[in-house]
Amino acid sequence: MPRYAILVHGGCGHWDRADVAAALKGVRAAAQAGRRILADGGSALDAVCAAVVALEDNPLFNAGTGSALNRDGDCEMDASVMCGEGLRCGGVTAIRRVRNPVLVARRVMEETSHVLLAADGALAFARSCEFADYDPITVARRERHRKLALAACASAGTVGAVARDTAGRFAAATSTGGVTLKMPGRVGDSPIAGAGNYATKYGAASATGNGELMMRTLATKSVCDLLASGKTARAAARAAVSALPMTSSQSGGVIALDAASRIGAAVRGGAMPHAWFVAGDARLGARMQP
Ligand code: ASP
Asked: Which of 158, 192, 216 has most ligand 1 atoms within 8 Å of its beta carbon, as the pocket-test mutant?
């Protein structure tokens, strides 16, 4: 039977020293939520969604509650999910006033013939699925928004998860408030299959950092192509991150899982809290740097 595995990240970039312990606690709790599902024989899709929901509900991370704000002080969130089997995927972009964008993304995959719904259309769909009205803006984010200069910057704290279940199926999920002070309407990499999130029958990957870099290089699709050609998750994540055409003020990170249930993580331009568990391991691992 394939060894189940889960790996989650809490976003790359600059992390304040004061937040490190809480960030590691948050990613561990998320990995643990996914691990429980996989250990009970649950699906990789259920596991990545549970892990991402745990992170969306933690205001420390830039996804769901506590999402970064755009130039107008509004919260427009992006999220997507993907199953390796059948390359099924769904996403939402620039969605407002829902608690868990990743769960709306899952419904787009499961209940529509589309891959990506945007803005008011995404919100109308969410309401038709009975996702309640919810304000994800926290006092801390509002304060940070007030203090920041007028240049879009990556906000550490995007979240993502990749998992493999006992049936050997892969899934990936990624969720974010996007970059701080982004233009209203800006779409990042997280909801776009192949840019910020991707899964195939050979593996899965989730990205974080300046999303424009991931869209220009199709970072997670590249990782999955490398996994299909036999590269390890570690080598594939490193290759994708080194290929990012980054400036010194940008950051980029990727997590990946391969068909031997090995984990891989790579980051440039900052730290990336991540946590993992592979069936048979003595305990859950967590780190700021790969
Ligand atoms: N990748 C996300 C975006 O560009 C942001 C991040 O990961 O920090 O929207």
From this structure: 158
Across the chain, where does the E strand assignment appear? 5-9, 77-83, 88-95, 116-118, 159-164, 170-176, 197-199, 203-209, 252-258, 263-268, 274-278, 285-287
Confirm if 276 and 5 have CB atoms less than 8 A apart: yes
Please state the pTM of the whole predicted model: 0.97
Residue 152 pLDDT grade (very low, low, confident, very high; cuts 50, 70, 90)? low
Under a CB-based contact definition with an 8 Å cutoff, are residues 112 and 214 in contact? no
pLDDT tens digits along 55-100: 999 999 999 999 999 999 999 999 999 999 999 999 999 999 999 9
**Mutate which of 70, 155, 176 for ligand 1 pocket (most atoms within 8 A of beta carbon):** 176
**CA-proximal residue: ligand 1, atom 9 (nearest):** 178
